[in-house]
């Protein structure tokens, strides 16, 4: 067993930490206040190779391992959740699905420009009437010769109004839809230039205000069958496969958010005095800080284990779900406590902890709510659920 990071991990960690500190941290409060997505961040992340971080070099990526992806997410969310969300959807949910499930032609056409940062990618499963209940979606893809015609709406989609490519899930078998049999779902890659495809931005979000979240409407979007990812009927499996990678990035990101809460709270606990001593000397402040320190370490170990399993090519749905569940719930607690440590100052945007608090809630909801992960973990423990080998797996690292 080896707990130390390798040199290549530390290089990624430092690169992303320096990027966040110099390029984003000085502006993030204003971007969050203005609810503005800064597109130049995408170019900068692309230039650093982050948008294709763990995509093999032959597909335009940097060829790093999955642990590096987790470390990068931890560093990004240390600065702001909106940055980590970019990697979650562009790389975790979309590009790694193309890498694993795409044909060679699809990898060349869609994955290579995404890994190079020339095209931005999003993932659309959630609809206005269905989130946790993925089989409850209504979007349809009706076959017409060698084409499909797509109808429907996806919402709460990160990067919806920014992305060039969209990984979308829709019913291709109406009979199976009636029976709620997920074998009737298929996955498609859509591009922004397609006729009948429009996107919009959601406003009034609680957090992740420097990030773009929106909707996509498909009104008779016609695609040739070479835009279908995987086989007909494999959509649900692809959606769940994608979540194994997305949840990993959410877990590692939430770990970074806990560390950000810890660092801000320690700093303030030394500065602020009450009853003649720095507040850090009061036992109940110590309790909150101790909990942040504990939850940072636990969350970190959980996501690193999941990343290690991905490197080895081991199925990690259970471990990734546990990492996501634990870290996101702990990050919400840490952010609430960080506001408390800051007293009234924590309640204003003079300090970053109120932004951490608003941002933390989203991750408890997306990529499987707290309740869904609780049920998953209970079902594994009770033996009601078991991970079986899948037809398609993430390539092991080092890549060929
Ligand atoms: C900021 C943000 C970004 C997002 N980005 C994306 C994205 O890029 N792509 C995408 O596809 N989606 C995205 N989502 C959507 C997200 O994945 C869904 O919101 C999430 O899956 C929950 O679905 P829902 O909102 O429809 O809630 P619902 O499924 O309606 O759940 C409502 C409540 O009921 C509970 N519940 C539901 N079913 C059960 C059950 N069986 N047992 C117990 N409790 C249950 C839930 O836990 C929750 O508390 C995003 C959401 C947010 C907030």
Overview of the structural elements:
This protein folds into 3 domains: 7-119, Orthogonal Bundle (Butyryl-Coa Dehydrogenase, subunit A, domain 1); 122-235, Butyryl-CoA Dehydrogenase, subunit A, domain 2 (Beta Barrel), CATH 2.40.110.10; 239-382, Butyryl-CoA Dehydrogenase, subunit A, domain 3 (Up-down Bundle). The chain contains 12 helices and 10 strands. The chain has helices at residues 7-24, 28-34, 40-47, 66-79, 81-101, 104-115, 174-178, 235-271, 283-312, 317-341, 353-365, 370-382; strands at 121-124, 140-144, 147-158, 165-171, 185-191, 197-201, 213-224, 228-229, 273-274, 277-278. Strand 9 and strand 10 (277-278) form a beta hairpin. The longest helix is centred in the middle third of the chain and has 37 residues, at 235-271. It binds flavin-adenine dinucleotide. Flavin-adenine dinucleotide binds next to strand 1, strand 3, helix 11 and helix 12.
Total domain count: 3
Shape: globular
**CATH topology (level 3) name of the largest domain:** Butyryl-CoA Dehydrogenase, subunit A, domain 3
User: Helix amount, in percent?
Assistant: 40-55%
Main β-sheet, spatial strand arrangement: 1-4-5-8
How many E-type strands?
10
Run of helices and strands: HHHHHHEEEEHEEEEHEEHHHH
Number of helices: 12
Q: For this structure, what is the CATH class of the largest domain?
A: Mainly Alpha
Low-confidence segments, ≥5 residues, pLDDT <50?
none
| Main pleated-sheet profile | 4 strands, mixed
State the fourth-level CATH superfamily of the largest domain: Butyryl-CoA Dehydrogenase, subunit A, domain 3
Give the averaged pLDDT, no decimals: 98
The proportion of strand residues reads 5-15%
- From the N-terminal CA to the C-terminal CA, the straight-line distance is 24 Å
Ligands and ions found: flavin-adenine dinucleotide
Q: Helix- and strand-based class?
A: alpha+beta
Q: Can you name the CATH architecture of the largest domain?
A: Up-down Bundle
């Amino acid at each position: 067993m080896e707990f130390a990071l390798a040199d290549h991990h530390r290089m990624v960690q430092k690169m992303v930490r320096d990027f966040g500190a110099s390029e984003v941290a000085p502006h993030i409060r204003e971007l969050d206040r203005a609810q503005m997505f800064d597109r130049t961040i995408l170019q900068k992340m692309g230039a650093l190779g982050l948008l294709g971080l763990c995509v093999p070099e032959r597909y335009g990526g940097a060829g790093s391992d999955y642990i590096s992806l987790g470390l990068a997410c931890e560093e990004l969310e240390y600065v702001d959740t909106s940055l980590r969300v970019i990697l979650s959807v562009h790389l975790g949910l979309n590009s790694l699905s193309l890498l694993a499930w795409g044909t060679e032609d699809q990898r060349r056409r869609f994955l290579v420009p995404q890994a190079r940062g020339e095209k931005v990618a999003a993932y659309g499963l959630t609809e206005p009437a269905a989130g946790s209940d993925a089989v409850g979606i209504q979007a349809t893809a009706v076959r017409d010769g060698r084409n499909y015609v797509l109808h429907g709406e996806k919402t709460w989609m990160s990067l919806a109004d920014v992305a060039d490519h969209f990984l979308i899930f829709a019913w291709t078998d109406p009979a199976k839809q009636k029976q709620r049999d997920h074998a009737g779902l298929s996955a498609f890659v859509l591009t922004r230039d397609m006729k009948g495809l429009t996107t919009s931005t959601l406003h009034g979000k609680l957090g992740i205000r420097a990030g773009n979240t929106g909707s996509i409407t498909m009104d008779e979007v016609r695609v040739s069958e070479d835009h279908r990812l995987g086989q007909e009927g494999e959509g649900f499996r692809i959606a769940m496969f994608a979540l194994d990678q997305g949840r990993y990035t959410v877990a590692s990101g939430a770990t970074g958010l806990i560390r950000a809460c810890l660092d801000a709270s320690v700093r303030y606990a030394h500065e602020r005095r009450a009853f003649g001593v720095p507040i850090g000397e009061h036992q109940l402040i110590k309790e909150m800080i101790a909990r942040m320190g504990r939850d940072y370490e636990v969350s970190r170990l959980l996501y690193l284990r999941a990343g290690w399993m991905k490197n080895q090519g081991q199925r990690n749905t259970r471990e990734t779900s546990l990492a996501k569940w634990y870290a996101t719930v702990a990050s919400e607690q840490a952010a609430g406590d960080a506001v408390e440590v800051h007293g009234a100052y924590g309640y204003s945007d003079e300090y970053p902890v109120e932004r951490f608090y608003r941002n933390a809630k989203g991750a408890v909801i997306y990529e499987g709510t707290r309740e869904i992960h609780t049920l998953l973990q209970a079902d594994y423990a009770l033996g009601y659920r078991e991970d079986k080998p899948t037809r398609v797996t993430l390539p092991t690292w080092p890549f060929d």
